Protein 1
Amino acid sequence: MRQRGAARVWHVGGSSIAAFVALSLPPMTGGMARAQTPEVGTGGAIGLGNRGWSASDPNRATSANELEFSARAGAASDYIYRGTTLSDHGPAAGAAVEARFGALYAGTTVATVKLPTQPLAEFTYAAGIRRTIATIDFDFGVTYFAYPGERLPGETGGINYWEAVFRGDRKIGEQVRVAAGYAYSPDVSNTGAWSQYVAAGVGYDVPGRLLPPNLGVSFTTAAGYSWFGNQALALGGFPLPAYLNWQAGVTFTHKAFNLDLRYYDTNLSKENCFVFTGDPNARPGGRVDPVTNPAGLISNWCGATFVAKAWFAF
């Protein structure tokens, strides 16, 4: 981990690697946004920093005394999490299952990733409660993010961590939905730093009378802000860069099949993108910061990205 070259790149941004793997508002299995995560419960769910592949729908009513299950599986051209790629801008696949009993839920997801620590995959384990109060659907949950088989666990011994999330969804009329949420981790990606994330979004469902039978079309957009505490001294002791992320897209649903086309972006500079992600393929040529980025390395893991994602939900 302290070798020269690519390994040294990891040491300079190692604190960040863990952190970039850590922010999502999970409603069910690791993503408050999807109730997502990288990120959508059913077609057109508002993503507030989704992560992984959730099987849940934050707006779906469940029976008070019956155990219910849902599942989903699919693939995406990229795994974007709160504006940054978790798959090195390559394709990713994932699956999820969730069990619900009244207001309680628990679930798990698995997704392919390509991270600096080189784990086999990303697993999430989540549990929480969903309640409707007045006209707002609330979701409070806790998610544990696990990255087994890390070949380069770094100086902190890996990037596993947990996060608590609070989310609210509300319908305005028949077509418009709004959502907002907050997420907190006391030790994001095992860096020693706390993380906080706030996000809000809006969605519009095209009226069914304007569409062919069995087809649903939803337009959604959201934005979020992340900020952090100081990392462990072994990782530099400085806070990771705070930043904005935003996304917008359209989701098509035909029975169990869903297709989402979405644009993602952040306001992170290429230099801060490296500091945040620890991208092992970062290259020199950026502005030097003697504390956070003494080599002036830059990364493209946080820039504008278009993602196509398809999945089946059951």
Protein 2
Amino acid sequence: MKTNKIKFGISYVNTGSALHTLNGITKFILFMSWVTMVLITFDLRVICAMILVGLALLKISKVPFSVYKPLLIGTSVVLLMNALFMFLIAPLQGVEYMGSETVLLTLFGDYKITVETLFYLLTVTLKYFSMFPIALVFVFSTHPTEFSASLNKLGIPYKIAYAVSLTLRYLPEVMKDFMNIMHAQQARGVDISNNVPVMKRIKNVAKILGPLIFSSLDRADVISNAMTLRGFGRNKRRSWYSLKPMTKNDYLTLLVIAIVLTLGFIKRYQSEQLFWYPF
């Protein structure tokens, strides 16, 4: 029987790039500032510039394209489907935002393909996509423990920070367990391919998720007992082995982030229209 190959591509990859040398606090602030910038702008020019910068940072991270290629394809498909559903739900949304109507093709009822709607869907789709490269940069270049240390440094309680670290660290392990259980069940004749009806496929997937849940709970219990035996949570503060000191490059990066984010807020405040529309 042919088995399905599933790869988990969202995890820390140590390539020794310049981004890896930055402090976790710097990369976290970069990520949050990037998301803020995406949320406040509807200017396609700014969005395209952010995509190019994000892809450039992804290139600087030196992570092989094959690692995130499935994620890129999956994200693109989801965003295209989202654009289609947005058109089906509100076919004239772009006309309302742009204040004009240039009909390219009349379909039926209120469904018309207009230049304004296409421009609106393009802007929103690229707006969502612009967060994809920086998210990968942050995950690929930031070790979970380093990220947790950075959260604690920013004032978040270390118990919460450590929980985040454990979650990020064991997601790949959970995926490995899923693949092992899936292969074991397939060896026993459990088929989850397209060759079986949908309802039977759902039942067969449940045969995989059940052992996966119990194995994850067992791992969580082992980790909890180990942390309790070592006195975790007894002290109000704790030190971090992987906490990096702030360097000159970190402060320079934070300065650039502050300037760009300030310019973004100024531009958003001075904009007369929500969307930039050149036509």
